[in-house]
Specification:
three-stranded antiparallel β-sheet, binds ligand 48H, 262 residues, alpha/beta, globular, FAD/NAD(P)-binding domain, 26% strand
């Protein structure tokens, strides 16, 4: 069989550019491919909502690969079991109300389900800014993560979106960008980013779902970023709250698209 390197190159460049062109206008742009962002993208795409996820790193999965302190197991509580089942992730009961999964399988399943549902995932792209028109976020400013890492002075590109999900984990980067660029206008008590509190798993896992909501017109927060924005506790290596938070933000946004398939 004849194999031409140039055909391979053209296939990659053309295929990627087509995907990127198609993603310049979208319904929901999710920033961050950890467990929360992936779960949100899965449920949104499953409903026929055009969903694009941008992940800074080469691998998606965020803080999930390493389980707890690199012991690659993930722990989930009873409330999140139904999401594991929906995603066809094998789980073993550990004790009453606690389940354990293999972190490699968990991330891989989340990624595959997300893609199969129709969400577009771009790795190696960082969101560095937002577009704001009439006090609403209308788009994201993106650049290659490699540009950032090499401190190159290269201008970014932009994508238009109806809604943004900040799923950037502990750093809550989108919320921080908003405060930095236009002041304390978040939907928190002070309008400012409140910051994460110390470890208290039980409380952290409860508030993370409560804190999953709109933080600025058209911008929603989920996962660890939700507790960081609203001053919630951290919870350590239990991941049920991340899936439940991703599911909740998807539910909130699905309501914004009443004409989509149900
Ligand atoms: C593109 C970006 C940008 C950007 C960040 O950290 P994550 O895994 O976040 P969650 O909320 O899905 O899950 C949190 C969980 O992993 C965790 O850390 C827990 C449970 N901690 C508890 C504790 O007590 O410590 O994923 C966020 C992802 C990462 O992959 C980042 O690379 C990515 O977002 N990201 N991608 N543009 N500006 N900022």
């Amino acid at each position: 069989m004849k194999i031409d390197e140039i055909v391979i190159s053209r296939a990659i460049v053309e295929g990627f550019c087509k995907d990127l062109m198609d993603s310049t206008e979208t319904d929901v742009a999710v920033v961050g491919g950890g467990p929360a962002g992936l779960t949100a993208s899965y449920y949104l795409a499953k409903e026929g909502i055009k969903t694009v996820l941008f992940e800074r790193k080469l691998s998606i999965g965020g803080g999930m690969w390493g389980g707890g302190m690199m012991f690659n197991k993930c722990v989930f509580q009873e409330e999140s079991k139904r999401i594991l089942d929906e995603l066809e992730i094998n789980r073993k009961k550990y004790e009453k109300d606690y389940y354990i999964t293999d972190s490699i399988e968990t991330v891989s399943a989340l990624c595959l389900k997300c893609r199969k549902a129709g969400a577009k995932i771009f790795n190696l792209i960082s969101v560095e800014d937002v577009m704001i028109r009439k006090e609403k976020v209308t788009g994201l400013v993106i650049n290659w993560s490699a540009t950032e890492l090499a401190h190159l002075h290269v201008d970014p590109l932009t994508v238009r979106t109806k809604f943004v999900v900040d799923a950037t984990g502990h750093d809550s980067e989108i919320a921080k960008i908003i405060v930095r660029k236009i002041g304390k206008k978040l939907k928190t008590k002070t309008g400012d980013f409140l910051g994460e509190k110390p470890m208290w798993a039980e409380v952290g896992e409860t508030t993370i779902v409560e804190h999953t909501k709109e933080i600025y017109p058209n911008v929603y927060v989920c996962g660890m970023a939700a507790n960081a924005v609203f001053g919630g506790y951290r919870m350590g290596p239990i991941f049920g709250g991340m899936l439940l938070s991703g599911e909740k933000v998807a539910k909130l946004l699905i309501k914004k698209f009443p004409l989509r398939k149900t």
